[in-house]
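Hey L., structure's done. Input below.
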Amino acid sequence: MEGEPSRGPIMTRICWRSVDILSRMLSSGEREAVRGDLAESGATGRQALLDVLSLVIRRQAALWAHWRPWLTRVGLVVPLGMLVSVVSRRVAGLSAVYMWMYANNWDWNLLGYRGFWYQFAQSFEEIFLVYLTLVCWSWTSGFVLGSASRGIIRLNSVLFCVILSFGGLLGAPLYLAFLDRYLHRTLGLPSLPDSNAPVFELTFYRLIFPLIVQAILVVVPALWGLRQGAGVVRVRPLFRALLCAVAVATLAAMLIQIPELGLFLKTYRRPWIRQWEARLQFVVYWPVLYLVATSIGRRWRLGVGSI
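Output:
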């Protein structure tokens, strides 16, 4: 019985904390209005929680009544999540070979050879560009998703992370295994020994490292791009249309540069696709220019406002 009085304040704090979390799913104007009404009414924590929960459910149900949320989930969230997961798995496999080559065969005497530094610089440049490309693809995927689902950005963020987790743990490995069987069965490729088998026999490079790459180079940039895409509504229509066109071109470049897609669609027989692949390569890095430009513009506006 001595513990009974303390349950009230604890439960009250939990209820009001839950109210604060749930209210973040509302728009900023409605969130402030709801908090003001709750403060004036003197509602208890339990009453406030029930009121805010019912309001959030009604708002979310109203959003799901339209066609856009369904389109973004079926047409964007699932395909983009699975596509980026497959690309991330391939990037992790490529970089794991280089990492194993240097980490497991390291010799300090190599630092005295000029040829080693030349090879090391080439390897570093290749891995850096591959990582940068993956980051830009992930950021663009989030940007497209955020610009198409501004009213349900938090829900889409959670769903996108779920799809990425599924793709990283199951989807991408199963797809790549199916692709290997497809190539041998359909194209009649001989079964050759895998020269990289010693790398992926290690649990770290086979299971843990791909998840690390996806968490750092996919999830973080994608969520960042999703927030940036949700705020694109504030820019001018012409500039917004230009950003959407560049984002679509980036996703097209990602599709074109996936070798498996070319084998399925037989695009390797069309030379013009390879020409467009070279042209779209530089478009992929547009998020870097966009972030630099927006940062400069923000600093300029702050400088002008302080005068």
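The chain is about 80% helix and 0% strand. The chain has two domains: 4-64, 67-305.

-- N.
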